[in-house]
Amino acid sequence: MSELDPRPPAATLGVIYPPHYYAYVYETRVNAIARRAKALLDGAKLRTIVKALHREPRTFLDIGCGTGRYLRAMAGRGLAKRDVHGLELDQRVVDTLVAEGFDVQCARAENASIPDRAIDLATMFHVIEHVAAPDLVVSRVAGWLSPGGVLAVETPNLDALDQRLFANRYWGGYHIPRHWHLFTEQTLARLLRGAGLEPITTMYQTGHTFWMFSVHHWLRYSGRPHVQLARLFDPFNSVMLLAAFTAFDKARAAAGMRTSSMLMLARRPS
User: Fold this and answer.
1) In this structure, what is the dihedral angle of CA atoms 169, 21, 97, 13, given to the nearest 10 degrees?
2) pTM score, whole prediction
3) Does 195 reside within a domain?
4) In the 8-state DSSP scheme, what is residue 22?
5) How many Å apart are CA 42 and CA 239, to the nearest integer?
6) In a domain, 236, yes or no
7) Is 167 inside any structural domain?
8) Containing domain of residue 77, as a range?
9) 3-class DSSP state for residue 86?
C-alpha cells in the first residue's frame, strides 16, 4: 500500500471536493454519449456483483454515492428506495437524493449511522483511496453487512501498465491531493481480511481516465509543454479517445491482464 504524505487536513475537504467536483456534476459535464456508454458498463458491473451475492439483495448501500447513479440502478432492479442507502459529503446532492425517496446521509463512513448486519450489498467505487483510515472504514462497513453479505471495492491498481509507464510523476491514478492510499491486489485483499471479510474474486475494469490523464499530464508538464495537444486527452471532452482507451483496457482485461482499476469482492462469513 502506498500513502500520500503529508496529507491535507480534514478541514480542507471542502476545498479538495468543491461543488464543481466531477462526481457532483457528472450529468452536466460528461458528454451524453460517454454517459450512455458508462451506464452500460455500470449495469454489467452491477449484474456481476449481484451474481456473486447468489441472491437479489434486500438492502443496498453505496458509500460515496455521488449523484446517485448506482442508487437509481439498484432501484431499477426492483429494490424499494427506502432500502437503497447512500453516503455522500455534499449536502445539496444528499438533499436531492432524499427528495427522490432514497435513504442517504451526509456523512463519512467513519461517523455514519447504519444498523449492524443490515446491508446485503455494499459498494465503494473509487472511495477507499480517498479516506484517511482505510482499515477503520472497511471494519465499519464489514459490521454493517448481513451474514453472507458482499462488499465490492473498486480502486486504482498500483500494479498496472500505465502506472509503470508514468510512475515517476504523471500517472493519472495518483490524483493528488485526493488519493491518500493506493493498493495492489495483494494489499487490498490484506485490508479486507483484516476486517474479517473473505475476498472471493478480483476483476479488472477499464482505467481509461487514468490513461488519458497520464498522457495529458506528460504532454502538459514534461519538457516543452504541448498545451493544445494535451487538451485532446481531457477525458471530459475527447469521446473518441475515451472510447479507444476503454476498448484497449477491455481487451487487456479479457486477456487476463491487470488494468489500473481493480474491483475486488469480499464476503462476510455466514
Assistant:
1) 80
2) 0.91
3) yes
4) G
5) 17
6) no
7) no
8) 2-158+175-210+258-267
9) strand
